[in-house]
Amino acid sequence: MAGRLLHNVNIIYQSCVDRKSCILSSFDPEIGSKGIQWIPINTITPDICSIRCWQALTAFGGAKQDHLLSLNYL
Question: Is residue 60 included in any domain, yes or no?
């Protein structure tokens, strides 16, 4: 993640995705080499988010450990 900003953040309330090893790929040109990654919301910090994504997460507030995010890296 070094030097990369999040391009898109989707807050997922319930998911059947395996959290431990889920990195999805896509032929979509907006999704970079790191693919779409699902990580716990409470591990996100301002230094890996764009300002817009961080504001969205802040507005969401009260992040719970069981929420997941889909992160699209440039």
Answer: yes
Is residue 66 in some structural domain?
Answer: yes
pLDDT in tens, 17-34: 555 555 555 666 656 666
The pTM of the whole model exceeds 0.85: no
pLDDT of residue 19: 54
For residue 27, give every residue at least 6 positions away whose Cβ sits within 8 Å of its Cβ, in sequence order, or none: none
Query: SS3 sequence, 43-66?
Result: HCCHHHCCHHHHHHHHHHCCCCCC
Give the domain extent around 14: 6-73
